């Protein structure tokens, strides 16, 4: 009888150990966090926009207007400067995940040089590089499914600090940097979770003002989905899709 009780006790101890191991495995991390929920702090090369939990009553994302589809006036256009073959990343701002409406800007000690703007739609962030140094980063809004933001490399065609949309009821689009002839642009916007655009890239208005002061017609904007950069890597043009 004693031997039988000892055997039963051994089985119970073994079963408890298996359950404990299964419980640990269930809560173990599974690689990079999805952008569908809040993300833990990461190294600068894994920057993501922090997304709040969606309200229970949210049925669809609100949409902010895109830039007007009217073509830029001839006076606003200039011949774009050739895109550099590559720009080596010399610094990434150590700011971690960015919340909607937040941005970072730091030009202290950064030399003058060519400017490249990168946009990662998967991370929902925009970065500004001057001479290879990241000087600014912000959370963004981008195009909804029916009007997606295009991927590729685009020169800035026009700048307009006080632009308003002729297509969407004269909606203000401050500090517009137009990228395409059909109205896709970077511009100041109220950047909040649950909002999207008609293809444009919306950034906080204060950040848009800083970017507007740095960017020139002909500077290039590289829009990708899921491409991250680290110090020492090269920023290369992306194919247009």
Q: What this model shows, in words?
A:
This protein is α/β, with parallel strands linked by helices and 241 residues long. The chain contains two helices and 16 strands. It has a six-stranded mixed sheet with strand order 5-8-7-6-15-9, with helices on one face. The protein has a four-stranded mixed sheet with strand order 10-11-12-14, with helices on one face. The chain has a two-stranded parallel ribbon with strand order 1-4. Strand 6 (115-120) and strand 7 form a beta hairpin. 35% of the residues are buried.
Key words describing this protein structure:
alpha/beta; 15% helix; four-stranded mixed sheet; six-stranded mixed sheet; 16 strands; 2 helices; 241 residues
Structure described in brief:
With 241 residues, the protein is an alpha/beta fold. It is built from two helices and 16 strands.
